Structure formats: structure tokens, C-alpha cells
Amino acid sequence: MAVDYTVIVVYLAGMLAMGWWGMRRAKSKSEFLVAGRRLGPAMYSGTMAAIVLGGASTIGGVGLGYQYGLSGAWMVFTIGLGLLALSIFFSARIARLKVYTVSEMLDLRYGGRAGVISGVVMWAYTLMLAVTSTIAYATIFDVLFDMNRTLAIILGGSIVVAYSTLGGMWSITLTDMVQFVVKTIGVLLLLLPIAVVKAGGFSEMKATLPTEYFDPLGIGGETIFTYVLIYTFGMLIGQDIWQRVFTARSDTTAKWGGTVAGTYCLAYALAGAVIGTAAKVLYPNLASADDAFATIVKDELPMGVRGLVLAAALAAVMSTSSGALIACATVANNDIWSRLRGVVRPDGEAHDEVKGNRFFILLMGVAVIATAIALNNVVEALTVAYNLLVGGLLVPILGGLLWRRGTAQGALASVVVGGVAVITLMATYGILANEPVYYGLLSSLVAYVAVSLLTTPTDAAVLAAWRERLAGRDPELVSEPVPAGQ
């Protein structure tokens, strides 16, 4: 295992080095939170794919393949569909807004009265998303070093917190590009073909496993529908995803770069399901489907290659973890803390903005690590995160983008009613039940439409300013110059 250890240690050291390098570039709020809004198509595509394909997509995707066969691809497939929908239909308009958070978008659209409540819901979502990624370190480090769960979470989480705190979005962008390359090589180019060959090829896999393992709808129509509601719609509105859209150099970059990333996700989904199906042939009696990834890597791959593939799993976890962490800190500082204090500093106070956001990343990082140690169920934590996001924020966000008649009162009612309904139904039916997101989303929609129609339409001046901002024509909008060569 010495070669594998060396690969992992070099990889982790490289992540910290990039954090240090990113710190030298992050000199303003824009540089620190959205990489100066200057990412080109290649870097934008790589980092967007990296953030949406995390530990749940990699380890969990292989586990679903182990349990259901090829139809286990649906969870990650719906993530790719969501990213494609976001990129094709909404990302150009989102990029032109030149904001930092989803709540700022809601304030612009509805007239400045939706921020704190929506910020709290978005903060809860990003916190739980970061926690789920951080919990996953325990699985990977256990395979690598037979490490205690708590120590593994602290080690993995501390590295992500360190490079994220140092350089903000620049550090995260640089590390995500490396992580994208490592994931592509480790999972798609190495683990996928090796797993299929070790299982005897597709003909042997079909001969060994039941036919339902090769049914594209074998996981069940209701499950697929729930995945669409949670993950496809979740991709449309999550702060972690929007914050990456804000990094695009232009609306064209956001649209086409995101389309490439979404297409990559579809291929990644199928790869994970095939690897899991191969693992079922090789190890038919694993105690847990989620053990399939670690088992096939540990037992079937040669040294060096094993280290690279485990580095790919680390890359998947770290990219999602760092993206969720900076999103959580951005919302906590800009949407909640600053608003509660009544303090909104101008962008010109660059040093204070960077220092404040850096402090919040460190603070939220400590909270994430502590929460991850206390919790043990990744699926439940991820379900809570997406139920809150979709049930509380999907309707007012998409409503604001698509329906002129929506009002601030309708948006607030939608957030509160949808959020309360989701929490109540999770307590009643159970966290993993489908009812919370179904009825939470429906109640949010009813509240939004009813209250909007019963209240005074949004002021014409607010809507006019909103349209100008969407078109990128706001005369008061100051964009930082893009240096030559960027």
C-alpha cells in the first residue's frame, strides 16, 4: 500500500498548495466569493461537473448500481438533467444578475423583503450538504488507513476548510479542476473498464445477474419521479450551484459550459451503475450496497491505480464539500448576519469583505465537522437538505423568474408554508418518505399563487429594474475588469 499512500498524500498536499496559491489572487469580495466572475468555458465546465458529482454520486451511485443494476444510474442521471435544464434555460439570466446569493436575486425580484427567511432555508440546505460530504471521508480513510471515523472526518474536513478559507472560490476552483481530472481518470478511464473485465464482460454479467438488473426502469417509477423532484429541481435553485454560475465570464460561458458539464454527468451516472453491477457479480453478498465501491477498489485494482481511484473518490467528496462550504458561509455572512446587523458594506471595502467571508468559512467549517461527527446517516442528511431546498425555495425562485404576477408576500408565504410542511411531514412520515417533498412542494405552490393573487402586484419600478438587471443593462451595475488573458 506504500505506493497508494504516496499518491494520496501527494494529492492532499497539492490541495493545500493550491489553497495557498489561491489566497494570493483573492483580494476582493468578487475574487473571493465568485473567482472574479472570469472563468472561461473549459474551467467553468470542469468545476461545475466537479461540484455536482460528489461522494453521493460516486460511492452512492456505485452502491445503487450494486443494488438495482443499470437503473441505479437514475439518481446521478437526474442531477445531470437538472444541470442541463439550468444551463440551457436559466444560467444566462442568472449570470447577468451579477449577485452573490440566491436571496439577493429574490430581493431584486420582489423588492427587498425576502432575504433573511430564504437565507435561513438556503443556509440549512448548504450546511447539511456539506455535512453529507464530510461524513463520506470516514469511508474513504477507513479503506486507506483503517482510521477511526472521527479522526477521518476531522482530517478530511480540515483540509477542505483550510484551502477554502485561504483562497475562497479561487482555491476551490483550482482544486476542483484537479479533482475533475482525477475523477475522470480514476472512475471513467480506470475503474470502469477494469471492473467490467474483472466481472467477465457484459455477457457474463447478463448471464449471472437477474434480468431486472438490466431493466432501465428497474428501480421503480415512483423512485425516479422522486429523484426528479429532489435532484433535478434542486440543481435549478441551490446556492452551491448558482455560486458557480456566478463565476462564469459571460452568459454564453454559463450556458454552454454548463451544458457540457451536464452531459458529462449523464456519462458519469451510467459509469457508476455499471461499476456497481460488476461489483454485484464479483461480491454478491456484501453487507451494504454502499460498500461496493470501496470493496472493488481495494480487492481488484493494482497498487498505484488503487491509490489514484481512491484519490478520485476523495476528489468527488472534496469538490462537493468545498462548494457547499463556501455557499454555506456566503449565505450565513451576506444573507443572514449582515442583514440582521443592518450592515451592508460596499464592495470597495475589499479587505473587510474578504476577511469577513474568510472568517465565516472557518466558522461554518468547524460547524460542519462537528455536525458530521455527531451524525452517521449520509442518506438521511442529504434527504433533509434537498427536501428543505425544494419544498421551501423552488416555487418562489422559479416563480420569480417565470411569473410576473408573483409578489414578495407570496414568496414569503411560499417559503414559510413549504418549509414548515416539509419539516412537519418528515417528522410524521419519516425522513426518507416521499410525502414530505410531494406535499411540501404542493403547499408551497398553492401558498405562492394564492397570496400573490390576493396582494398588490410588485411595484412597476422594481420589475423594471429587475428586467434591466436580467438583460445585463443595469447602469449602476459595476463589473470588475477582466485582465488580459483571462
TrEMBL record:
Key words, A-Z: Cell membrane, Membrane, Transmembrane, Transmembrane helix, Transport
Main localization category: membrane
Bilayer disposition of the protein: Multi-pass membrane protein
Sequence similarity: Belongs to the sodium:solute symporter (SSF) (TC 2.A.21) family.
Spans through the membrane: 6-23, 44-66, 72-95, 116-140, 152-173, 180-197, 217-238, 259-283, 308-332, 359-378, 384-403, 410-432, 438-466
Intracellular or extracellular location(s): Membrane
Alphabetized Pfam families for the sequence: SSF
The protein, known as: Sodium:solute symporter
Domain of life the protein comes from: Bacteria
InterPro entries according to UniProt: Na/Glc_symporter_sf (IPR038377), Na/solute_symporter (IPR001734), Na/solute_symporter_CS (IPR018212), Sodium:Solute_Symporter (IPR050277)
